[in-house]
Specification:
The chain has 523 residues and is α+β, with helices and mostly antiparallel strands. It contains 14 helices and twelve strands. Helix content is 59%, strand content 16%.
């Protein structure tokens, strides 16, 4: 990379030198032309013809050099020959132009400087030697009168040649060193920028950079992933997330809802200073806590259910014993009375005692630990079977618009009859919740997600309040007039026994979504 940058820099340098040398000859041509025009009555144009020939030859040579600049760079000796020829041409022009030597002294010095720029110290000193020889010969055989101090001036000019050569070589080497260092520094800065970009882009937390007005200037891949693949660049974050903090804050939990789910996001905002961007600049770090909060809720729910189950099981045992005594006593009384009204009342008492016994038996079954699942169960075939049962169930609404998205197979370890009971309980409740809505929709989705089979059951029913949602799995809690309150409690127990994670979202007037995560197994 550095070599490529250096090669490009050298090419640009040679191109500048080539055009500078062409400019020198154009300058000589312009100065001489003005001088000739001012003295046209005293000029013998036939004598100055060699002058124009040398100028044309030099210009043609440099046009050739520019055209083949890349190839000449590989033949440095041929490229240096051009500088020697320039020195020779400049010296010959002293003889044929009739112009003052001071102009050509200056041009010789420029030629030495250009040679030093390309070939460093050795090239500049070699060029000074050739210039000294050619300039001395041209001066000795030139048209100017030789004064007493001529030798002194000639020596002084030659000293100037070598002094400029030394200075040119030193400056050229320093410029080259600085160019290499700047190139390395530039590459290092680019590498650091790319590294920083890679680090920010692959951070597990979402990062947003925004200004005081809330316009997002930059976001990383994690932020885009949090917001369902959407980039927030050029979006006003305060309009997109109304709960977003408007000032520097440590941590704040906000909610973001899209068409599929509601996410719980933890946002922390800090201010930064940027010398590049005017005005205040802020960075927001965003963590998706949805799964963490769901797991926390699931743990609390399981602990609460275990406590309630244990307490209620003890109470159920205590109730069953008195019920047995009451039932026996009523049966004895029924045998000793002949009054029909009394017998009718006693039958009602016995029937209600039997109903209580059945309820207690059902609850004790609920409180009994589930056997660990060992059989492979295909959730796809199970889901199809349950949905087929719903279509033939005349006790529920039959005009429900269903949408089913399932793979070919989704295998877990479980007990098929128990899972079927759990699925039926959830789906029947969903259908019953849609009794009063104008258009009933029910969606079933099964997909693989991070070592889990994710089952989503979504209805467009009446929904639940937050207090009802929190207590929905508690035994004997029900909102139905004829319900026992054990259906969803048993469902929770079955799913918990299968190692499933249960998440419920509900909004009154919108509907309810059950999300079940089952550990997947390979078949």
């Amino acid at each position: 990379m550095i070599a490529a940058v250096g090669s490009q820099r050298n090419y640009n340098q040679r191109l500048i030198v080539a055009f500078s040398r062409i400019s020198l000859y154009l300058l000589i041509l312009a100065v001489s032309q003005v001088s000739f025009l001012l003295q046209k009555s005293f000029i013998n144009w036939s004598l100055v013809a060699p002058f124009y020939a040398i100028i044309c030859l030099a210009l043609g040579l440099h046009v050739f050099y520019v055209h083949y600049l890349d190839k000449l760079a590989e033949r440095r000796w041929l490229y240096f020959t051009g500088f020697i020829l320039d020195s020779l041409f400049l010296s010959l022009l002293i003889t044929f132009s009739g112009l003052n030597q001071s102009l050509f002294l200056f041009l010789h010095l420029v030629n030495i400087l250009l040679a030093g720029l390309v070939f460093q110290s050795r090239g500049a000193l070699a060029m000074a030697l050739f210039s000294s020889i050619f300039f001395t010969l041209a001066s000795l055989f030139g048209p100017e009168m030789k004064a007493m101090n001529y030798v002194f001036l000639l020596a002084l000019n030659n000293i100037a040649f070598f002094s400029v050569a030394g200075l040119s070589g030193y400056l050229s080497e320093q410029l080259q060193f600085m160019g290499v260092e700047l190139t390395k520094t530039g590459l290092t800065l680019r590498e650091i920028q790319e590294l920083n970009k890679a680090i920010v882009g692959h951070m597990p937390s979402g990062l947003l950079t925004f200004n005081r007005q809330g316009v997002v200037l930059q976001d990383n891949l994690s932020a885009q992933k949090i917001f369902a693949g959407r980039t927030l660049k050029d979006t006003n974050i305060f309009e997109f997330l109304p709960e977003f903090p408007t000032s520097v804050t440590d941590k704040k939990d906000i909610y973001w809802k899209n068409s599929e789910e509601t996410k719980i996001l933890q946002v922390s905002v800090s201010s930064v200073f940027s010398p590049v961007i005017e005005g205040d600049l802020y960075i927001a770090q965003i963590e998706d806590l949805t799964r963490v909060k769901q797991l926390e809720y699931s743990v609390r729910q399981n602990e609460k259910m275990a406590a309630i189950g244990g307490l209620a099981a003890g109470i159920a045992h205590e109730i069953r014993n008195p019920l047995a005594g009451i039932s026996g006593s009523v049966e004895l009384l029924s045998q000793t009375t002949s009054n029909d009204d009394d017998k009718k009342l006693m039958k009602i008492i016995l029937r209600e005692i039997d109903r209580l016994n059945n309820l207690i038996t059902e609850f004790l079954d609920y409180s009994r630990p589930e056997e660990p699942p060992t059989d492979p169960v295909d959730l796809v075939s199970l889901t199809k079977e349950v949905m087929d049962n719903m279509q033939t169930n005349k006790a529920i609404r039959q005009d429900v618009v269903t949408k089913i998205e399932i793979p070919e197979k989704a295998v877990i370890l479980g007990r098929r009859d128990k899972l079927k009971q759990a699925f039926l309980n959830i789906i029947i409740n969903a259908y019953q919740a849609m009794d009063s809505v104008p258009v009933a929709r029910f969606e079933v989705t099964v997909k693989y997600e991070g070592k889990f089979w994710k089952v989503v059951l979504k209805d467009s029913g009446c929904g639940m309040s937050e207090s009802t949602r929190r207590r929905m799995f508690e035994p004997f809690h029900t909102t139905k007039s004829k319900g026992t309150g054990l259906g969803l409690a048993v469902t929770h127990k079955i799913l918990e026994g299968h190692g499933a994670q249960i998440f419920v979202e509900s909004e009154q007037g919108v509907g309810t979504t059950f999300t079940l995560l089952f550990p997947a197994v390979s078949v």
